[in-house]
Amino acid sequence: MSTGQFPRPILMIMPVTVPPRMYLNNLAPELKVEIILHLRNPTSLARCSREWNNIVNLPSTKSKWLIGRHGRTHALFHAVRMGEPFINLDVVECLFAQKAHISRYFIQRLVLGFGKCDSRLIDLKLTHNMGALVPGRRKSIQNKIRSPWASNLSFDVYSRILKEGHDRFDGNDIPIRGNDMESFYYLSAGPLVINQARTKLKKNKKEIKTLIRRYSHIPIQTQSRAAIFDDCPPSDGYENVRQLTVIARAILIYPKLVNVWKKNGYPEIVNDVNDLVMQGSLLILYPSSPSEDWVKPGLAQVVDELNDLILLGFELTDALIGDVLILFEHRLKDIGEILIDA
């Protein structure tokens, strides 16, 4: 450097901080939808910006999210459960376009729940029948009665779902006031003890298959921890666990029903009744009140029974084994070692 010359200044490039929101907004729409589909609840993401809010609330996004989270079998049920403003006519159309499942039983349950309740009449009945209640308890009962599943649907959504059922199931002859789950109960010999039920169910298996194939009969989903003594049907729309017990019992009597359901759009049947079926199989092998001619099953018989169910997709999980050991706590000498070996 010659005398009198100043050194060249060094340019300092300061990092520019870009808010995370700008990165998210610049993503391609397809990628935004993909992110939404992996979220348990996209509501918080919808608050990030107007762009995200618009994509989260697209009918196509909502229907894909429902199917991704609950499967085609239960997507329509959860759309109705979430109610307005989540569900609208466009969301229903997208669900049907994406092959969401609908059954005649679903239509029957929808008709049962639709419509607003008379709040004043509820108050009068509670006052007359129950007298003075703890305020919190009274409010809980009022909310349960006033807002059953499907009660807050708009009429256009309700009528569109009814039309779909009308077009698929018997037109004007559809028994809207019927109950396909109750029909299944009697056809599968629900009132009879299981030894007598085998013969009865086999006589009715053609009608049972028609119920599944023609009218797409499946149980509505239960909550993970459903109350055993809840209303039947429960006001929140979920299936009562007793109804799933009817399904599980029929499978134990006639295991081929599993394949009938799988072929007719209900692959979740195994997952939905897994624990009930596996527990039921053990209760048949080890009845709580054994008859005088009951013979304790050997290891080979237990293995064969369980393997037949496992081949259909059922699982004897560690958690289920724990539940079974508690269930048979007073008979661990009969079942403990054999179950572990099996």
Automatic annotation (TrEMBL):
This is 8182_t:CDS:1. It comes from Paraglomus brasilianum.
